[in-house]
């Protein structure tokens, strides 16, 4: 009789220690954060320094043995073809 991976009796913890799925989850979360930050920087939503700080904090959190509390990420732009909002012009252009 084969084990059904969707069965409630099937457990990845039987191998002992941290499972590969935990490591894979952390790697995927880190990769998704990195991609989201790259998109945010490329659209001018955040600075490179802010992205570096967030990436460092994410790496530190993911490297800890404890599971971090889920944090809500800002939504990605719905229309990637839309231009980033322009900075307001402090002085009107002469005519």
Describe the structure using short key phrases.
membrane, 95 residues, cell division, Cell division septation protein DedD, mainly alpha, elongated, transmembrane
What can you see in these coordinates?
Keywords: Cell cycle, Cell division, Membrane, Transmembrane, Transmembrane helix. This is Cell division septation protein DedD. The protein is mainly α and about 100 residues long. It has a domain at about 20-65. It is about 40% helix and about 0% strand. It is built from two helices and no strands. The protein has helices at about 20-40, 50-65. Helix 1 (about 20-40) runs antiparallel to helix 2 (about 50-65). About 5% of the residues are buried.
Topology:
Elements: H1 20-42, H2 48-63
Helix pairs in contact: 1-2
The biggest sheet amounts to:
none
Cα distance, first to last residue?
Answer: 82 Å
Q: Output the helix-strand order.
A: HH
Fraction of residues in helices? 40-55%
**Count of beta strands:** 0
Average pLDDT, all residues? 74
Regions with little confidence, pLDDT below 50 for 5+ residues: none
Radius of gyration: 21 Å
Q: By helix and strand content, what is the structural category?
A: mainly alpha
Strand content: under 5%
Q: What is the general shape?
A: elongated
**Separate helix tally:** 2
């Amino acid at each position: 009789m084969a084990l059904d991976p969707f069965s409630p009796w099937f457990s990845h913890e039987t191998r002992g220690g941290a499972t590969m799925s935990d490591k894979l989850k952390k790697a995927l979360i880190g990769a998704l954060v990195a991609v989201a930050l790259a998109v945010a920087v490329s659209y001018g939503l955040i600075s490179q320094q802010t992205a570096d700080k967030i990436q460092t904090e994410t790496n530190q959190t993911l490297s800890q043995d404890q599971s971090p509390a889920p944090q809500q990420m800002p939504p990605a732009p719905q229309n990637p073809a839309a231009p980033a909002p322009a900075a307001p012009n402090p002085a009107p252009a002469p005519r």
